[in-house]
């Protein structure tokens, strides 16, 4: 094989990888269902990309009783830090909320997100503690939202810090997501 062909081949490999990385987000944008979630935000900055919003979704904090029994049983035997699961979403009013979390892949007509359930909540030292917590935090593999909008970045967060000791208690932002087969992309963030 000549040098030119080797150079061309090595140049095409990163290009092919990049193209294959772009296909799943494009499919989600084209065929995904648009839903709205309640969220609170923390504005920040990223060194390379600029202004960023750290989103804390209301569906991230759920009651322990929404976990499926099979998930609880498997988690007791699991050795890792987090267990992969699916959060089934149902519409409550104009927003979506978690109806339950299961290990089984949902039907294609259901709206669901892939998630990770922390294992520490099933450990014996956590269960036997005096302070039993009924609410757990679920991790969703959603991207950060990068924006150039001054309306969202210059939010009430910094203005209310002195007046209110915890300005982040309210879920006063709406996040629009496109969901396709458990994968989601943030489309827009607006104030309620």
Largest sheet: 5 strands, antiparallel
What is the average of the pLDDT values?
79
User: What general form does the structure show?
Assistant: globular
Proportion in helices: 25-40%
By secondary-structure content and strand pairing, the structural class works out as: alpha+beta
Order of helices and strands: HEEEHEEEHEEHHEE
User: Quick one: how many beta strands?
Assistant: 10
- Indicate the low-confidence ranges by residue numbers: 161-168
Oligomer: single chain
The share of residues in extended strands comes to 35-45%
Question: What is the CA-CA span between the terminal residues?
Answer: 62 Å
Describe the strand arrangement of the main beta sheet, using strand numbers. Answer: 8-2-1-9-10
Radius of gyration: 21 Å
Number of helices: 5
Description of the molecule:
With 192 residues, the chain is of the alpha+beta class. Helices cover 26% and strands 39% of the residues. The radius of gyration is 21 Å and the shape is globular. The strands form 3 sheets. A 5-stranded antiparallel sheet has the order 8-2-1-9-10, with helices on one face. The protein has a 3-stranded antiparallel sheet with strand order 5-4-6.
Give a brief outline of the structure.
This protein is of the alpha+beta class.
What's the SSE blueprint?
Elements: H1 3-31, E1 33-46, E2 50-57, E3 61-63, H2 69-77, E4 82-92, E5 95-102, E6 111-118, H3 124-127, E7 135-137, E8 145-146, H4 150-153, H5 156-159, E9 173-180, E10 183-191
Antiparallel strand pairs: 1-2, 1-9, 2-8, 3-7, 4-5, 4-6, 9-10
């Amino acid at each position: 094989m000549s040098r030119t062909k080797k150079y061309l081949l090595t140049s095409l490999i990163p290009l092919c990888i990049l193209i294959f990385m772009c296909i799943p987000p494009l499919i989600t944008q084209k065929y995904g269902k648009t839903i709205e979630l309640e969220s609170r935000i923390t504005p920040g900055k990223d060194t390379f990309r600029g202004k960023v919003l750290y989103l804390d979704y209301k569906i991230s904090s759920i009651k322990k009783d929404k976990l499926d029994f099979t998930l609880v049983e498997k988690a007791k035997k699991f050795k890792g830090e987090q267990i992969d699961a699916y959060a089934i979403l149902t519409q409550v009013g104009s927003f979506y909320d978690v109806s339950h979390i299961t290990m089984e892949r949902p039907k294609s007509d259901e709206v669901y997100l892939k998630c990770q359930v922390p294992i520490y909540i099933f450990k014996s030292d956590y269960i036997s503690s005096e302070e039993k917590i009924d609410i757990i935090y679920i991790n969703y593999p959603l991207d950060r939202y990068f924006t150039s909008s001054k309306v969202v970045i210059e939010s009430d967060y910094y203005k209310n810090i002195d007046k209110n000791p915890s300005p982040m208690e309210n879920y006063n932002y709406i996040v629009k997501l496109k969901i396709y087969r458990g994968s989601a992309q943030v489309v827009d963030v607006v104030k309620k």
